[in-house]
Each structure stands twice: as C-alpha cells, then as structure tokens.
Design a protein that fits this description.
mainly beta, globular, single chain
C-alpha cells in the first residue's frame, strides 16, 4: 500500500540495518533517486525514524515516521508506518511495507531478515 502523499513506489527498495537499537538505511528506485534514514528502536516491535531523499524530479524532502514491525503469513518482515513530512511539503498518512523474497531482491546474495535485530539488513519494498 502506498500513500497518496508519499513519494515512494513499488519500485522503491529500502535497505534497513538494526544494530543495538539504532536503525540506519538507504532507499532508492522509482521516483526516489536516493534517500537515507536514521532512527531508533522504541519497543519490542516499535521504532521511530527520520528520513530524507532527493527525487528524480529534483525535490529535496524530509520527514518522520513511527512504525510497528510484524511478520506476515509467509514469514516476511512487515513494517507499518504513521508518517509525515517535515515543513516544506504537505501530507502524511499510513504506509505498509513488506520484506523482499530472494526472487524479488535486486541482489539475492545479500543476507536479509531480522536475525534478532543483530545487524542483518532487511530489504523492503512498498
């Protein structure tokens, strides 16, 4: 599910890394030329992030989100966010993301999964 006020698309891939409660990551694809995120784990399955990106149209955007991590019926990591833009852009809402399978991943050799939040990257697509 994508949000009407969001800029990512099905072609946007997010790479998340979680180490000792700190979250870092990058994202790109579709209308996103490049993006970065930082955040922190706030509970067993909750987190908060700040993010910024440059779109293929040259927009410079930044925002915040609070999310919940889960697992779907296929045992893929899911992330559901309540998010908004920081001043300069309008909108916000709820977005849902799901972990890429080996067949969907741009680089299937990369290790993915929560791995007890031990630093293994999680590849997510909108």
């Amino acid at each position: 599910m994508t949000n009407a006020h969001g800029r990512s698309s099905r072609d946007t891939v997010f790479d998340y890394h979680v180490v000792e409660g700190r979250i870092t990551g990058t994202y790109q694809g579709g209308p996103i030329q490049t993006g970065h995120l930082v955040g922190r784990v706030t509970g067993v399955d909750t987190f908060e992030l700040l993010y910024h990106c440059v779109t293929t149209e040259g927009e410079l955007l930044s925002g915040w989100s609070r999310g919940v991590a889960g697992v779907d019926l296929a045992w893929r990591t899911t992330l559901t966010f309540d998010w908004g833009w920081l001043p300069g852009a309008s909108g916000g809402g709820i977005s849902r993301y799901v972990e890429l399978t080996d067949e969907e991943a741009p680089n299937p050799q990369e290790k993915r999964g929560l791995q007890g939040c031990a630093g293994a990257p999680i590849r997510i697509r909108t």
